[in-house]
Amino acid sequence: MAASDTTTDDSLYPIAVLIDELKNEDVQLRLNSIKKLSTIALALGVERTRIELIPFLTDTIYDEDEVLLALAEQLGSFTPLVGGPEHVHCLLSPLESLATVEETVVRDKAVDSLRTISAQHSPGDLESHFVPLVTRLASGDWFTSRTSACGLFSVCYPRVNPTFKADLRTHFRNLCQDDTPMVRRAAASKLGEFAKVVEVEFLKSDLIPMFVNLAQDEQDSVRLLAVEACVSIATILQQEDVEQLVMPTLRQCSGDQSWRVRYMVADKFTELQKAVGTDITKLDLVPAFQTLLKDTEAEVRAAAAHKVKDFCQSLDPYQREHIIMNSILPVVKELVADPNTHVKSALASVIMGLSPILGKHNTIEHLLPLFLTQLKDECPEVRLNIISNLDCVNEVIGIQQLSQSLLPAIVELAEDSKWRVRLAIIEYMPLLAGQLGVEFFDEKLNSLCMTWLVDHVYAIREAATLNLKKLVEKFGPDWAQKTVIPKVLAMSRDQNYLHRMTCLFCINVLAEACGQDITVKLMLPTVTAMAGDKVANVRFNVAKTLQKISPILDPVTISVQVKPVLDRLNGDTDVDVKFFASEAIAGIAA
Fold this sequence. Notes:
36 helices
């Protein structure tokens, strides 16, 4: 008997330690202990967890925020540890306390856990335990408890009887009219999800008036959240009800004096469009969209510009072209020259998507001039967004038309007198090559890429060598062997020593992309021949190149072709050549 008592004591010893840790002054120890709560609960068993551990945890709610956050998270998965769904209500007490603390992150996590365990309550337990908790939180003295309550209505409402439902709706209405803006904000943010579970008759009689009031709130932070609710409510209602009950408020929000509310309307515009249907879109949303695209605030214009393609795509197919050409495109043309770069960039990221919607004729006549303007924009992001989406225009108008219209603009930028403009186009070249394909690239742009290698600005030559590597990775070593390598190797005989050095820089990056075979057969002989160059800078770069490409060469090639050249350079009269040759010899030997 004594032995078995000792065993019991031994098994409970770690629990005592953990409970001591929960009372420890060191925050990290308390945090670690909270994270091991499930271990304590398993060791205690379900009954002792309910009777001892949960009350103990409820009493320790006054702690550091990070400890409380960990506790709120742990309790959400505690149902099996207290004996399953029939006892889950015993977790409500500590979570209720956590849902009232000052720190928002802790409250939100407690609400998440309460939402999780609400599903594990039976309807009877919901009515006897969970709904009273919601009611207590909703009528609490502190705004913290009332904000937490807002997130709990939708999870319990569908599974309780009509009397409780009426009570919940009344409490939610009170929260929507609360004196504290933070509570009204929380209610507005949860109105949409509550609307989805409330019966349609009560949605019209109870929730729509709440929605209308919140959309007219004195605080813009509340009004903008009402826009989100608008989407959920419009999705549930019939078309005629939307027109009568929702649209007046939506019209008012789209012209709100606060730009943040208008921004939210613009951000949610395509969701609203799907919710209200094609008829209301044509009558109300098209004029509203025009207004948002012309808004005085750049953030609103940018948010609306982002939605241009999706909005046009979702228009009634029979009227789509007419609406775009007459109502949307005139405004879009103005945005192309917008003074704000964010607006132009947002538009450039989606404008190409109008090509498939409008077809070949309209693209050539109306859209191509806009693309040309954006391609020449001073903002690199605008140019990149146009080049990134060339493929969808290519599919509509064909490569020939594209090359006649946009390619001259790209070539013009590639030859611009400002080297930074040339540099920007080089960076887009691999992307452009992928969009246009190898044949077109060889015909129109290959010579341009080779010209950059002999540019008078070093940064351009350097970027051009990296560009070659990316092109070889895209088009393959065979393409490089036929198209690029002969031109690169020809530079080794150029009169200008800078161009001869560029040849070596190109080999540095091409060797890895082309592989051992092409490097040994085509490029290595050129490198070794350049070891006799009359300019010391070229000779020491030969040593650096041999060291750089050595990892992809076989041992025989290194001993027969590379080492003799490096030994010769190691005896060079120039001190720098000798230094880099000895570095290369040491590097290859290692």
